[in-house]
Amino acid sequence: MRSFFLTKAALLSAKRYKIDWYGSFLSPLLTILPAILLYYLGTRSGLVHFFYGATNTKNIFGYLLLGAAYWNYVEVLWGAVFALRYYMRIGQIEEIFLMPVSTLGYIFSWSALGLVRVTIESIPIIILAALSNVMTLTISGLLLSAAVLVLSVAASFGLVFTFFGATLSFKEGDELVSLLGNAAPLLGGMFFPVSVLPKTLQYISYAFPFTWGLDLTRHFLMNTNTLLNTKRELLVLAALSVMYLVLGVLSFKILQIKARKNGLQGF
Amino acid sequence: MIWLVIKEIKIRLKYRFVWVNMALTPFFIIGPYVFSSKIAKVESLTESVLIGSLLWYWLNQYFFGVGDAFTEEREEGALISVVLSPVSLLSFLFSKAIDTFLMNLYITFFTLVFFWLSGIALRISLFMFMLLAASGLYITFFSIFFAALALWKRRIGSVNSTVQFFLGIVSGMVNPVENFPLYIKFISYAVPLTYLISMGRKFISGQINASEASKSFIALTLLGIGYLVVGVLFLKKAENELRKKGEWESW
């Protein structure tokens, strides 16, 4: 209950600064716009032809929009780690941990704020993605892609727990989140199928549940090609999500105990 | 000013993982655009996107390092100390610019190594180094303008990333601005990055000559000085207003 009040407080603060919302509203669209321009203006160079061969769709706009919407939801949870680091930087971390709210309560309240924000901010891209994929949308596809998103969010929480614990212990956990957040769109296939990447990067990308999650989401909503057989891919995603979540909770517990034992002061 | 630069580097040296992050992140940020262009298997297109997005990444770093220089100090409650110290706000911003330049050289080295390992090589020469150094100077002028705006209108820093993407797109980071409609070109040529990307592309395709390069540099210099003058005026205005109202700590 206390973490719900924290979420409410954070939402009320967020409401005060409207300009923050404009930036978040436009950023996902601006991130994919260079790639859209590249494909649109690069038709003669063979980009679109290759894209169709690799994905089974010529709807590059819809492909990129779905990628951006999916990543918005997966990545936003990691904001909890930046929130923690922010309180460390402004010297309020000790006060935060003296409050009668558990660490998990903080994680959930900061993540819930992120989920509410991203849902509001993603409205334009979700509408555009739905409109551009209207020909391939089905009820079963929507339900299956919602299930894939739930699994992906569970895996994302696993990473949040690990990074939160790491930040409490080593202080620089936010750098790790920032690196992963920047690497994920390339490694997870937000812009193009991961088969385009050099082999070494492909192997790294297969270790992320989000690569499989995004691939399946696009398949269910756009009928694109998948990396593996759909059933196998669902199994891989489920197994990776459970593994990330379990490892995340375990590492969080260990790292939190270590941090409380050694003290949190200093950053 | 040089002591401020040393201070910045010393602080950063304390955080080892920041260096790993800085070495890897640019590759991942500009990688999607570069690899998207690689799909076509046209080498010149990939090189063109790489140089455009690399120069755009330099702008990003200046916008965070210089353009957003006051935000972090303000949040930590240290801005008042900066104002009380015997260093002008402009010198403070230039020290951030020198620090950003050094970081950008570090970043560029690793980015090019990672792309080279991925089979994408960019020809590095003295001209390219001069272009990057010039980019540092002119984008610093441009970032000072943004820093002044951020000092004046506090929350403008929160649209920093959005502004960076917008500037990258209109400057032709992936597509030459010649392909844009006239009204976008009008905006493009008001952004210094457009001239730098255009020169970089012409150089790697071997189409640049001395007279064209000097024309671009003259246009770039005039534009850069224009932004610097307006930026300094804004900075003074914002500083005077903050001193009068005593709002250095509020954000």
Spell out the key features of this protein:
heterodimer, A: 267 residues, mainly alpha, 13 helices, 80% helix, B: 251 residues, 0% strand, globular
User: Count the helices of chain B. How many?
Assistant: 11
Order of helices and strands of chain A: HHHHHHHHHHHHH
User: End-to-end distance of chain B, in Å?
Assistant: 26 Å
Main sheet attributes: strand count, strand direction, barrel closure of chain B: none
| DSSP strand count of chain A | 0
* Mass-distribution shape of chain A: globular
Beta-strand level of the residues of chain B, as a percent range? under 5%
Q: Which bin fits the share of residues in helices of chain B?
A: over 70%
Describe this entry's structure for a reader:
- The complex is a heterodimer of chains A (267) and B (251).
- Chain A is mainly alpha-helical and 267 residues long.
- Chain A has one domain.
- In chain A, 80% of the residues lie in helices and 0% in strands.
- Chain A has 13 helices and no strands.
- Chain A has helices at 2-16, 18-41, 47-55, 60-76, 79-89, 93-98, 103-121, 123-132, 139-170, 173-187, 199-206, 209-222, 230-262.
- In chain A, helix 1 (2-16) crosses helix 7 (103-121) and helix 4 (60-76) crosses helix 9.
- Chain A is globular, with a radius of gyration of 19 Å.
- The mean pLDDT of chain A is 78.
- Chain B is an all-alpha fold.
- Chain B has one domain (2-245).
- Chain B has eleven helices and no strands.
- The longest helix of chain B has 36 residues, at 210-245.
- The radius of gyration of chain B is 19 Å and the shape is globular.
- The model of chain B has no long low-confidence stretch (mean pLDDT 84).
- At the A-B interface, helix 2, helix 3 and helix 10 of A face helix 2, helix 3 and helix 8 of B.
